[in-house]
Amino acid sequence: MGKYNYSKKYLKGLSVGPFLKQVKIRNEHIEAASDELKPFDYHSNKLVEQLHPSIQHCKVSKIINRTDAKSFVLTSDKPLAYFRAGQYVSMNIKVGKIMVSRPFSISSSPKKALGKNSSYMITIKDNPDGFSSREVNKNWKVGQSVDISGPQGEFYYQSLRDAKHIVGVAGGSGITPFISMAEAIADGTEDFSLTIIYGAKNKNALLFKTELDALAKKCKKVKVVYVLEDKDGFITSKIIKKYVKGDFSLFVCGPRGLYKAMDKVASELKLTRRRFRKEVFGEYGDPSKDKDFPKDLVNKTFKLTVIMRNKKYHMPCHSNETLLNAMEKGGVHAPSRCRSGECGWCHSLLMEGKIYAPKEVDGRRLADYTFNWIHPCASYPLSDIVLEVPYNK
Amino acid sequence: MEEKLHYDVVIVGAGNGGLSAATYLSKKGKKVLVLEKHNLPGGCATSFRRGRFEFEATLHELCAMGEGETAGQIRRLVDDYGLKVKWVPIDEAFCSISLEKNKGFYVCMPVGVKAFADEMEKVVPGCRASVETFLEFGRMFSDGVEWLAKYYNEPAGLAKVKMLLKWKDLMKLVPVDTDSMLRKIGMPDKAREIVESYWDYIGTPSDSMSFAVYAYMTYNYLYRKPYICHDRSHEISLAFDAVIRKNGGEIWYCSPVKKIDVKDNVCRGVILEDGTYISADYVICNLHPDTAFKKMIDPEEVPVRDRKSMNARTMAQPCLTIYFALDKSMKELGLKGYDTFLRTTGNNRKQFDSCNSLKTHKENCFTILNAVIPDSSPKGTCLLQFSKFYTADVFKGVKPEEYFKLKDQLVKEALDQFEKELHVNIRDHIEEIVAATPVTWARYIGSPYGNVYGYIPHTWDGMFARVQSGHKIDHTIKRLRFVGSAGTQMDGYSQTYLSGREQARYALMDMKRGE
Ligand SMILES: Cc1cc2nc3c(=O)[nH]c(=O)nc-3n(C[C@H](O)[C@H](O)[C@H](O)COP(=O)(O)OP(=O)(O)OC[C@H]3O[C@@H](n4cnc5c(N)ncnc54)[C@H](O)[C@@H]3O)c2cc1C
Ligand code: FES
Asked: What is B5-62+230-314+455-512's CATH number?
């Protein structure tokens, strides 16, 4: 042919025979093998089931009453999934006829999830105006069945990324992941130093004070500083500087207000971004005061059509309430985990309509904007909406 | 009353193969339903967010793309499907490092057939003639493969005669292994070790890899350039989702299939994890056959051919991927190159043999997305990814309570090596870090021990032999076909898109014949 500039000498001794016989040879290899149907028993896949169950069926086996909060010890027939201290689970809660999911940090050591007595502790602050939390704290008894997700979230110590010393700033129920971390340090699961700076209105509002004091006493790597509003004011960079020296990572968990305050503190302390980590805080709340929220659409009601598989559901939605909430109220238990715009589990297709997604909690991927995918947990309707959501039982 | 659900075609899994098959069939007017276990399309072709970053999960580069006059079969496929994706060509081929004592090298190779040969000559004086010969073979294979594609890889009658006349050289060189052919054309050892850097993408060492396949791939990268998309591979997967819907298809997320209903050697539909039964005229399965046959199909219905096949073939590689978001730019950190193969030795048989345990595996292929897409992360930062491929269930024996520590340990070892060999400081700049182990991959895609490459293409189980068996011989259950990395075309984005289209086309033919 001469079309290709290589010498034919390299093809000497080669024929098309082997090519034409390839299929035959392959068939012979296959034919020679055993016809046993071996089981699917790979170790990595077993680890998946153990570490990342999609759902864990639990029972409340113990309830601990605290001032303004309750702790629930969850157990199951199977060992619960091991996790990283600081992670949360998404818990299904039935309020009347409505099924919702809410994230809760695990407030016990990963070690307690091991072995025969495997358990998680979940701690829920009383909130008289709350919807799901009130239901749980008021009505749940020992023996209550609870379905929870596998462990979720990125709020944990990572030895290569973080400083060996973590300063954990907590507000209110935000103490829960730090309890797990402190316990994990004390029982040898984790190896880092933790200084917890725990802010509360007053002494009575502190959750876990007895436990924290005991942990600090028992373990040199755990320190606890209480900052009481009525006595010491708010948590400031000055307070942090007073208790912490050298390189550290700042971890924050608590109400949204605390995050704003800590942004300021972090900049005062000249922390680089990698030294400053925030747990997701859950629902964003009413967005209508946001600067970029269209003023003429505050408090408007629209029509929401939800497509789940081959079914359609119709319900109202309000511009000051997330689409996820609107769906739950309307009887559609759409998937969710973090409810903070971050994890992407609620990822849904906006077929029609316009939404408002607050920048602070807009955790979408780039291509989501191009193809109109949204996170309903952090999206507010600005018109009638048609939304296709992933299936959830 | 439960309504009865029926579709022309049910696709199990929205990975590359499944999405491609769904696009093809929906475009042909079939009523298609895609069932996906996860809440997103793409399987491996996805992205994830951490803090202010979005990481690419898997895509290093697409092969056989090109543009305009260099357009290859994948460009035609994506255009034909109507995918709306911002494709980006990559202006470098690869960097390759060998750490071998006295024989080591660190080279960065350009794209462009001529530029590549020039650079090779610079790095290994005297190798030019052999490199040019290699690339000429590559050009011939590339033309041959494009020619075969016109006949859907099944030239018959006159076309078959034509093939025997016109593509004789191609056929002669398919069964020859890469190593011995490169030696035969007189390529010096060092040049050969550089040229063979890509072996990891194919998943079998060059002494058992088809010369034609390897030269085809290399030539395609150099001539047509490697491509990625601008907004991570999530963009491609969502583009597929959009096209399938536009074609009238449906996709159900968070809908894992539990059983594929096969009775009397005919596939009749699927049962979802929640018990929903969906009947279908045809089922296309994007899962690894090992998963489907061992977990989802009635054991009595697993054909002897498939039982034997599974025992004869070798499971391909699971991987460990580590993603870093760094708070300094590439330049500030002293990093260069988009795609680099960091190897302890230039001998890829030795590399391959070390991949069967966590202890011995020391190879690393790393990519820096900012080298191609500077704004893929905020200014003054960059995204670095390590990929390590194993050849066994390497987490065997690991207990849940040991898992996280082991994961951190593996990341540390890889980082130690990287910093030491490249003389850079990474650890003081890690803003985000994510490691996906074989367990993570097994979790997301459900494959046997996180295998992402299907089956190892041993000399006897290479691409050409598979392609020739893919229409009839390996089609063992009526109305059921497999697509994806374990398919005829082997692993990789381009190849799994092709596999999806190929099997979808066969399925259409089967349906037309009423089979
Ligand atoms: C990662 C993470 C970990 C957490 N860990 C803990 C923890 O360990 N302990 C703890 O106490 N808290 C924790 N929280 C917070 C906890 O999830 C919330 O406090 C809890 O969901 C609040 O419940 P609530 O009853 O107060 O509010 P809810 O009322 O359940 O939720 C508030 C939202 O629900 C909406 N809503 C009102 N009515 C309805 C309705 N009919 N249907 C649907 N939605 C409605 C409201 O508009 C409001 O926006 C955590 C949060 C996150 C994100
Ligand atoms: S539930 Fe996590 S992003 Fe919406």
From this structure: 3.50.50.60
The complex's ipTM works out to 0.96
Please check whether residue A332 is in contact with residue A346, taking contact to mean a CB–CB distance below 8 angstroms. Answer: no
> Residue A360 is part of a domain; what is its CATH number?
3.10.20.30
User: CB of B503 within 8 A of CB of B479?
Assistant: no
CA distance B286 to B284: 7
CA-CA-CA-CA dihedral for A21, A22, A26, A29, to nearest 10: 60
pTM of the complete model: 0.94
**Chain B nearest C-alpha distance from A270 (Å):** 15
Write the burial class of residue B187 (CB in 10 Å: 0-12 exposed, 13-18 middle, 19+ buried).
buried
Residue A141 resides in a domain: yes
Per-residue buried b or exposed e for B360-398, using 16+ beta carbons within 10 Å of the residue's own CB:
ebbbbbbbbbbbbbeebbeeebbbbbbbbbbbbbbbeeb
Mean pLDDT of A29-38: 98
Q: Which residue has the tokens 């041959």?
A: B144
The mean pLDDT of B445-460, rounded to a whole number, is 94
Of the CA atoms within 13 Å of residue A14, those in its CB half-sphere come to 21
Q: Give the span between the Cα atoms of B433 and B58, in whole angstroms.
A: 15
d(CA B197, CA B183): 16
- All residues at 6 or more sequence positions from A118 whose CB lies less than 8 Å from its CB, including other chains: A75, A76, A78, A79, A80, A112
What residue owns the CA closest to ligand 1's atom 9? A124
Q: Tell me how far apart the alpha carbons of residues B193 and A42 are, in angstroms, rounded to a whole number.
A: 34
Residue A66 CA to residue A264 CA, distance in Å, equals 32
Could you tell me if B63 and B73 are in contact, meaning their C-beta atoms sit under 8 angstroms apart?
no
Distance, CA of B428 to chain centre:
33
Q: Rounded mean pLDDT of A88-116?
A: 95
**Contact across the interface for B311 and A35, Cβ inside 8 Å:** yes
Distance A91 CA to ligand 2 centre (A): 14
State how far the Cα of A211 lies from the Cα of A182, in Å rounded to an integer.
10
Q: Is the CB of A347 under 6 A from ligand 1?
A: no
Is the pLDDT at A195 greater than 70? The verdict is: yes
Please list, residue by residue across B454-485, b when 16 or more beta carbons sit within 10 angstroms of its beta carbon and e when fewer do.
bbbbbbbbbbbbbbbbbbeebbbbebbbbbbb
Where in chain B are all domains bearing CATH 3.50.50.60? Answer: 5-62+230-314+455-512
